[in-house]
Design brief:
The complex is a heterodimer of chains A (113) and B (115). Chain A has 113 residues and is mostly beta strands. Chain A has no helices and 10 strands. By secondary structure, chain B is mainly beta. Chain B is globular, with a radius of gyration of 13 Å.
């Protein structure tokens, strides 16, 4: 497989603060990127996506930033809540793979009440 | 959103036996489904792309004879772990995309424990 992660890095934030989760992707030709949230024992859940012709996209309380120059994605969560505690993965669609999606290493977010 | 269902959600088997995991798209048709494996505290690793009516496409390093994939209909793909061993114990997750959207929907995963 590709982009298999090692043990997950952890980000701990206070409830109400903003969270920033970073990710490096592997394929400079990938044209579609997605952030997923995974709670313990469950499958990943779509949060937000962005195409390579954009550098920023906003959703409800979340913003994704894309820097193609350095192959970097970030997910910003505003006013982080305890329910946001989960593992967050960035993922990419490499070219020519259809909807084939490759996951990055992931970050565990802890929200302290 | 679209719903992808997996069954069973967890299974325990003896070493040497085979286990079948089902992945169903409940409210849409999927010509392509994807199977992932996830070890504890690690990321999802793509195992194979399941193609309706044709052979699956396996990622490098994934044994096609060990992980048999069948995609016999537009709403069902199955993954069979043959002659399972303890190192095959993992969380297996499938996903599918409603036609043309690009957004993947994931099943709830199937946890396999091989004794």
């Amino acid at each position: 497989g590709e982009s298999v992660g090692l043990h997950l890095p952890t980000l701990s934030v206070q409830e109400g603060d903003n969270s920033i989760i970073n990710c490096a992707y592997s394929n400079s030709a990938s044209d579609y990127f997605i952030w997923y949230k995974q709670e313990s024992g469950k499958g990943p859940q779509f949060i937000i996506d962005i195409r390579s012709n954009m550098d920023k996209r906003q959703g409800q309380r979340v913003t994704v930033l894309l820097n193609k120059t350095v192959k970097h994605l970030s997910l910003q969560i505003a006013a982080t809540q305890p329910g946001d505690s989960a593992v967050y993965f960035c993922a990419e669609n490499p070219p020519g793979g259809g909807f084939k999606t490759i996951f990055g290493a992931g970050t565990r977010l802890f929200v302290k009440a | 959103g679209a719903v992808v269902s997996q069954h069973p959600s967890w299974v325990i088997c003896k070493s040497g036996t085979s286990v079948k995991i089902e992945c169903r798209s409940l409210d849409f048709q999927a010509t392509t489904m994807f199977w992932y494996r996830q070890f504890p505290k690690q990321s999802l690793m793509l195992m194979a792309t399941s193609n309706e009516g044709s052979k699956a496409t396996y990622e490098q390093g994934v044994e096609k004879d060990k992980f048999l994939i069948n995609h016999a209909s537009l709403t069902l793909s199955t993954l069979t772990v043959t002659s399972a061993h303890p190192e095959d114990s993992s969380f297996y997750i499938c996903s599918a995309s409603p036609g043309g959207t690009g957004e993947l929907f994931f099943g709830e995963g199937s946890r396999l424990t091989v004794l």
